[in-house]
Design a protein that fits this description.
This protein is α+β, with helices and mostly antiparallel strands. The protein has 3 domains: 3-156, Beta-Lactamase (2-Layer Sandwich), CATH 3.30.450.20; 205-304, Signal transduction histidine kinase, dimerisation/phosphotransfer (DHp) domain (Helix Hairpins); 309-458, Heat Shock Protein 90 (2-Layer Sandwich), CATH 3.30.565. It has helices at residues 3-60, 63-77, 149-199, 214-270, 275-304, 317-327, 329-334, 352-369, 400-403, 415-420, 427-437; strands spanning 80-84, 90-93, 115-121, 124-135, 138-147, 313-316, 338-343, 347-350, 375-383, 386-393, 440-447, 451-458. A 5-stranded antiparallel β-sheet has the order 2-1-5-4-3. A 5-stranded mixed β-sheet has the order 7-9-10-12-11, with helices on one face. The chain has a two-stranded antiparallel ribbon with strand order 6-8. Strand 11 (440-447) and strand 12 form a beta hairpin. The chain crosses the membrane at residues 6-27, 161-180.
Length: 459
């Protein structure tokens, strides 16, 4: 059963219970007041008739005359009375119906004390008011009887009216409550629809519930949750796409040199070749082997960077830069490139080995991109409370459409040049991961045939 249906039924049941309790209470109250009023009137009427009987006995002292007087008065005034002896023998009665001899109101009667009882006789309702009256030193039992069917009829009429009125009111109330319950729960239907859309993969669905109640707050929180879910889903999709590209590129990078190595080695094993071809084949096998060696080294670096237990220390940047220059001396000399280091001594809270790997990758890329007899500039300085390590070369540069992608694993702007230099397109990915570990940003500026500038900004 839906929530709006539960609300609808609960309100209908509450309405019926409340309406009937109030209706029955009012009818019963009116009935009790009418009965009390009729009892008081009957008591007064009883006193009035008893007084008249007593007066007539005192005046005429004739039972026959008094009885005759009572008959005339009862006919004239349409009243019902009963006049009995002390032993319940009937002297006069115009009740017109038989009544049980077991009459509680006639028991224990005393002078000047009236008993009354409500009694149903032959499907009709009566009030019986009885008392003892003394006439000439004799006690008689006198009862005044009044029909009060009209009170019960009014009560039944009130119940019938209540039932009919309840049906009309219930119809109107049911229609109103139907729309109110649907209106109240309509935001919940929107929330259910949105959750179903999200569960089916439609993550851009949002709620438009503008209210200050709990449903409005729930709607707002739901939208925030949906934003977070969509953000995480997109992030996971991007990560999955990156992983897939990584696997595809890694497979390609491994497959290509292996194919060449296997092909040239089969050639040497199955065919007699001259020394020149043999030398070229072995040279190519050696080159592809070195590429695989560098690829495995880079892959190990990437794997190690997924750890989160690096110990940061306060290190001197200039000492790291000078160490890197010395480690690249042979490569620099091969192309007659001059690595110029500038900047003042400054310390950073870093992991020294990771920082060495990052800057070494940047220098290695700069060497590969630079022409012979050129300069590479490696600087460290402070700017706006940030420490910046800047590497600038005057090499071939990178076009703008490639700048945002070169930090992706295995992405290479010029595959032929990268292959020639035993590159695998992983260096800048490693640099980005190391920068992230140190909460640093990497900025890249480049222009074709004018060079590239890379800044690592430590905040």
């Amino acid at each position: 059963m839906k929530l709006w249906q539960k609300i609808y039924l609960v309100l209908i049941v509450l309405f019926l219970i409340t309406f009937n309790i109030v209706g029955f209470a009012i009818i019963q109250k009116n009935y009790n007041e009418s009965i009390d009023k009729e009892i008081q009137n009957s008591l007064k009427q009883h006193d009035s008739i008893a007084y008249a009987i007593d007066m007539n006995f005192n005046l005429f002292n004739d039972y026959a005359y008094v009885i005759d007087y009572i008959k005339k008065e009862t006919i004239k005034n349409d009243i019902k009375i009963e006049f009995l002896t002390k032993d319940n023998d009937i002297l006069f009665s115009n009740l017109g119906f038989d009544i049980s001899s077991q009459r509680e109101e006639l028991k224990s009667l005393t002078l000047y004390k009236k008993n009354y009882i409500l009694r149903r006789v032959e499907e009709r309702e009566y009030i019986f008011v009885s008392s003892l009256i003394n006439v000439n030193d004799k006690n008689f039992k006198f009862s005044y009887v009044k029909n009060i069917d009209y009170i019960y009829n009014e009560k039944n009429d009130d119940y019938n009216f209540l039932l009919k009125f309840e049906i009309y009111i219930l119809l109107i109330f049911a229609i109103i409550i139907y729309f109110i319950s649907r209106k109240i729960t309509s935001p919940i239907d929107s929330i259910i629809e949105s959750t179903q859309n999200i569960s089916s993969g439609n993550y851009d669905k949002r709620l438009d519930i503008k209210s200050l109640d709990e449903l409005g707050i729930l709607s707002s929180n739901f939208n925030v949750m949906a934003d977070k879910i969509e953000e995480k889903i997109l992030e996971l999709q991007n990560i999955n796409d990156e992983k897939q590209r990584f696997i595809d590129n890694l497979t390609h990078e491994i497959k290509t040199p292996l194919t060449s190595i296997i092909g040239y080695s089969n050639l040497l094993l199955t065919t007699k070749v001259d020394e020149k071809i043999q030398y070229e084949s072995l040279k190519y096998i050696n080159s592809e082997g070195k590429r695989l060696q560098e690829l495995s080294s880079k892959m190990m670096n990437l794997i190690c960077l997924n750890a989160d237990n690096f110990e940061m220390k306060n290190e001197n940047i200039m000492e790291i830069l000078k160490y890197i220059k010395e480690s690249f001396r042979i490569k620099l000399n091969e192309k007659n490139i001059n690595l110029i280091i500038n900047g003042k001594d400054c310390n950073l809270y870093i992991e020294k080995d990771l920082m060495t790997i990052m800057i070494s990758n940047l220098v290695d890329n700069a060497i590969k991109a630079s022409c012979n007899n050129s300069n590479i500039y490696l600087n460290s300085y402070k700017e706006n409370l940030n420490t910046i390590i800047e590497l600038r070369d005057t090499g071939i540069g990178i076009s703008k459409e490639h700048i945002d992608k070169i930090i992706e694993p295995f992405y290479m702007v010029d595959k032929s040049r990268s292959r020639k230099n035993n590159g695998a397109g992983i260096g800048l990915s490693i640099c980005k991961k190391i920068a992230d570990i140190h909460n640093a940003d990497i900025e890249i500026e480049s222009e074709i045939n004018k060079g590239t500038t890379i800044r690592v900004i430590f905040k």
